[in-house]
Amino acid sequence: MEDKTAGLDGAMSRGDVSVIIPAFNESEAIGAVVGRIRELHPDFEIIVANDGSTDDTAQAAQKAGAVVYSHPYNIGNGAAVKSGIRIASGDILVLMDGDGQHRPEDIDRLLEFFPDFDMVVGARRKGQQANWRRAAGNRIYNWLASYVTQFEVQDLTSGFRAIKADIAKDFLALLPNTYSYPTTITLAVLRSGRSLKYVPIDLQSRKTGKSNISYLADGAKFLLILAKICTLYAPFRVFLPASILMFLTGLGYYLYTFFTAGRFTNMSALLLTTSVLIFMLGLISEQICQMRFERGG
What we know:
Blueprint: H1 8-13, E1 17-23, H2 27-40, E2 45-50, H3 57-64, E3 67-70, H4 77-87, E4 92-95, H5 107-111, E5 119-124, H6 132-149, E6 161-164, H7 165-170, H8 181-191, E7 196-201, H9 215-233, H10 236-261, H11 266-296
Parallel strand pairs: 1-2, 1-4, 2-3, 5-7
Antiparallel strand pairs: 4-6, 5-6
């Protein structure tokens, strides 16, 4: 089978790179973003996935030279990315925001590592988070993801990345409709044995508007997505610590009641039995995960 990504120069000359930009009410910034990409890379396919904008986002993007795919109403940032992936024709997909924070000049910095890597992510430098709460939350997400994948995850939630199209389409069904799609696709790539590289980038300040991310609601969604993908790709990394914690709690409570009251309580029995059940569930989940990988291989 011919390797369509057997060289970046060939891919670029054939127009095999598709840039996908999800956008919601970004009419004041999207035209400049698309225009700059078109100026730097006239052969690239540029797709703006308009997620039900109520302003002139679609018209501004189309006027600047992008292919526009519009949702009839606002579904979510992740849903817009999925729509862009479905219609993209390129062998390499570049995903970036339409608010002007991601620099089109950095696209080349991501693409230079293909085809050696399966996905390249632009990692924000320290101090470039919107505020301390988001920075603290991202550090927690990065730590949890690093634990599960056994790989140093530098920026789990970055929306600026390039990925081979066939891999992105393989994971399309897993991607949520919300802002947590970068989390999902990062964990999916790493746990499926693909290669990932981080490239440090500098963010520009938003040209207009403000972020639509809610710290409480979207933070909870990020954690749920993280738990789901962790148990989907590395279940024992989640079940085993929970089992050990439950076992040690039961054992500690048993020793306490034995030396203080000279008896073995129902609570100790419940905790120890639960630890065994969690351990067995982890074994079963690990076997199911392995069979899924063998079937997909």
